[in-house]
Amino acid sequence: DKGNHRHFMEKEIYEQPEVISHALSNYVDFHSHTVKPVDAAIDFKNLRGLAISACGTAYLAGLVGKYWFERYARLPVEIDVASEFRYREMPLSKDQAALFISQSGETADTLACLRYCHDEGLKIGAIVNVKESTIAREADAVFPILAGPEIGVASTKAFTCQLAVLASLAIAAGKARGTISPDEERQLVKSLAEMPRIMSLVLNAIQPQVETLARDLSKYKDVLYLGRGTSYPLAMEGALKLKEISYIHAEGYAAGELKHGPIALIDENMPVIVIAPHDRFFDKTVSNMQEVAARGGRIIFITDEKGAAASKLETMATIVLPNVAEIIAPMVFSLPIQLLAYHTAVFMGTDVDQPRNLAKSVTVE
Ligand code: M6R
């Protein structure tokens, strides 16, 4: 049932504040602002490394997770798409654990990768939406994302719930390894707890602007997304979402890679969507944005209040989100990205929930 929404995708975008809160409540205590203990099968305290693997959007959630595990838990993360991971003949050891992320829990490559790591003697964690799935059944520890059924082929609420679970696990790992203090733990969990409220605010605030912008975006054939730090995987997620439902060619790049190739493409025919909260990387990203502007590129700037105040560049549009704690920025900044792809596809008249050539669950390799 789509409720008052035109598509499941739209419904699922708007469900995020509620399902994120549900997901978080499984991993954090909202009263004491601490993380709940993690399934003992994954011994974060004594791990030497973590291998993460997944496909598509779930892989991009894993990439954000890598930044968090490394930063908050000082835990080295090896990550790859499942279809490559399996064949890389990567040296693995039993003091590493493997983490697989899958909405459906049935993705063939992810499952094959899980079995490979299991045979290598690694403990297996699975971040899944479907608890009865094969991937969940074969894991030593299951971390449900509790997003509820996701019907739209383009993953939205599963992505942000995967992020919420990864953030919680990274904090729990940091706590177990003594790399974050009790005070930092409280601050981080407090920030996570604010997310549902902020997400609702943002969804309501940006909708009209994003819809207007989508009308413009639907006229282009190519779009480039740029971001740094955790906004880099988000740039790739933005590009993936746009291409899969609107069929517009889009690429996501690390902002710093711009001058190593893609800058050659910049002209007025390829809008550049820059995702840049006012974080440690902001000034660097803005200087990449200047390089785009200097070559006549049109910029859609997705930033926060501080970022908007700090940049004087002329843009095609600037979407201003509230200033939020760094740990929740990837979830909050997912919202304009999802809505922009959604409304662009709606303007183009594509089959948003069932885009051509795609299946919700890819059970063949
Ligand atoms: O069910 P899974 O999370 O394992 O699916 C992985 C990908 O097939 C999936 O995320 C795909 O990329 C989505 N259509 C993206 O919106």
From TrEMBL:
Keywords: Aminotransferase, Cytoplasm, Glutamine amidotransferase, Repeat, Transferase. Catalyzes the first step in hexosamine metabolism, converting fructose-6P into glucosamine-6P using glutamine as a nitrogen source. Homodimer. GO terms for molecular function: transaminase activity. It is an enzyme of class 2 (transferase). It is found in: Cytoplasm. The chain holds residues 244 to 608 of 608 of the full protein. Residues 40-179, 213-355 form the SIS domain. It catalyses: D-fructose 6-phosphate + L-glutamine = D-glucosamine 6-phosphate + L-glutamate. The active site is at K360. Its EC number is 2.6.1.16. This is Glutamine--fructose-6-phosphate aminotransferase [isomerizing]. It comes from the Bacteria.
